[in-house]
Predict the 3D structure of the following.
Amino acid sequence: MYEEDYFMKLIQEFFQALDKAIHGKKSLDNTSDQENCVSDLYGSYFQADSAFFYGYDVMTILGFLRERCEEQDLPMMIEMISELFYQDALLKTDDALKNNLLEKALFFLSYLDEQSDTYSVERKDKIALIKRMLGRE
């Protein structure tokens, strides 16, 4: 019970921090400031810097997440990392890195969609949006 409450609080804090990094302070009008704030979230919530997540493939990242959380918490961790990849990609000007992050977000959202017992219109819409961004639809 306490572990579940802790994890739910962690997720809530993560999405608040992500929202603040993207839409927050007026001092973050500069895209590079936003990128730095988003980049810091990788270390704060996933205990590895953004270079790890940029450089490794999705299966390595999935294994990394599995090692760091209980099986019942994995779907929420995947939801968090997929949203971080997506938001990070939106800030990137380098097309290769942007597409890399979008591909990773798409993989994790699709994985979650396949594994989840819960149907999510929001998830389906985001998957479709990312596919369009990648030129697949």
In short: The chain is about 80% helix and 0% strand. Helices lie at 2-23, 31-46, 50-55, 58-68, 74-91, 95-115, 121-133. The mean pLDDT is 89.
